[in-house]
Amino acid sequence: MSIIQRYLLTMVLAMLFIPGLTALLLGHLEKKRMEQEIDHRIELVARFAGATREYVAKNLRPALDQVAREFILEGKSSSYVTNGIFGYFNRHFPDYRYRQPALAPLNPTHLASPFERDLIKRFQENSALTVIKGYQKVDGRIYYYSAFPVVMEQKCLPCHGNPVDAPAALLNSYGTDSGFHWPVGKVISATVIQVPIDDEIAAMHARYYVLGGCALLLLSFFLGLHQFLFHRSFIRRLSLMTAIMDRQGGEGSVVERLPDEGADELGLLARSCNRTIQQLREANLELERKARRVAASEGSDVEFS
What angle is formed at CA 190 by the lines to CA 184 and CA 194, rounded to 5 degrees? Predict the structure, then answer.
């Protein structure tokens, strides 16, 4: 492989490597940007759920206590109210998922799935873990999820402590088989929020295709431009210099000079070669003169003899 071929191959590989590395970096940044956007949406959902629970605890439940001593599930249970509000929310945004599953829930519809059970156990095994994020494929769709631990608090004992002390409305609705004797200070549940990201992934891939197409066009343009300029300023001149040098001394005459235009390296090389050619010309002429003198001297000696 010639030097020119090795150089062109190196340039092609470099021009392919740089866009490839750039694509990987842009892909990483694009994924981080998407995750940050989804995290913000999940945070809004979590904040809304937290605000709902706080409103039930600080406003709605005290107000109902003044007019009704019995436990009204639809107004005094923060979990019931929050899930009920999200039921209406899902009418407009059916793809958003909000759940607070437990290993032993009061309401059987809140029983943790195998996936959710694994999240809860991870929180139980690592008390320093405050959030778990990741991707999950459900029914052919890709979801980005965030899970947060739910720790049993003292204020929750009236409903989730000893079933003897629980409101009759809860016992009538759910019985006494599950949802009680939760230890205070322990992780007993998790808030899991899932947001579909199929559209975001499709949009990200579309941006990849557009950027990839533009990068391919630019790469082709620069490769073509580089090849044109490289051939014009280097290969053509070098080929001409090589051809002229090959003809030097073909018939014992040195008559051609290299074009030495330009102040670049090839111009300097051409001038150096021209000096060598000139020195060869002068050396040849000197040899011819010496040969003639020798021939003349030998002729004179023969004639003298």
Answer: 165
Exposure string over 45-83, b if 16+ CB within 10 A, otherwise e:
bbeebeebbeebeeebbeebeeeeeebbbebbbbbbbbb
Query: Which SS3 state, helix, strand or coil, does residue 174 take?
Result: helix
Distance of alpha carbon 128 from alpha carbon 262, whole angstroms: 71
Residue type, 185: G
Evaluate if pTM is beyond 0.70: no
Query: How many Cβ atoms are within 10 Å of 163's Cβ, its own excluded?
Result: 18
19-33 residue pLDDT tens: 777 777 877 888 888
148 vs 80, 112, 120, 241, CA distance in Å? Answer: 19, 14, 9, 75
In 3D space, the residue among 104, 98, 81 whose CA is nearest the CA of residue 195 turns out to be 98
Give the span between the Cα atoms of 160 and 152, in whole angstroms.
9
- The domains found in the chain, sorted by start residue, are 3-207 (3.30.450.20)
CA–CA separation, 48 and 258 (whole Å): 82
- Return d(Cα 241, Cα 57) in angstroms, integer: 92
Identify any residues that bridge with 145 across adjacent strands, giving them in sequence order: 134, 194
- 194-244 pLDDT per residue, tens: 998 888 888 877 877 787 778 778 878 887 887 787 777 777 777 777 777
Contact call for residues 165 and 158 (beta carbons, < 8 A): yes
With CA atoms as reference, report the closest residue to 146 among 72, 35, 297, 12: 35
